[in-house]
Design goal:
The protein is an alpha+beta fold. About 35% of the residues lie in helices and about 15% in strands. A hairpin with a 2-residue loop joins β1 and β2.
Length: about 60
């Protein structure tokens, strides 16, 4: 029983980590995604500049 619970926890944790990585993109969430670049900064679809430390190279 302990092995089954441990296995389920490991699977659940790995799914959570994969999902967390998806949300760490510039302009994610309410900002609506990336519209374009302005120099090295990302401009979001809502018109704001992303606070991301990543460099925009589109």
């Amino acid at each position: 029983m302990k092995k089954i619970i441990l296995s389920l926890l490991l699977i659940w944790n790995s799914i959570g980590i994969a999902e967390a990585g998806k949300s760490r993109q510039p302009c994610s969430g309410k900002k609506g995604g990336i519209s374009h670049c302005e120099g090295k900064k990302f401009v979001c679809n809502d018109g704001s500049i992303s606070g991301s430390k990543k460099i925009c190279s589109r």
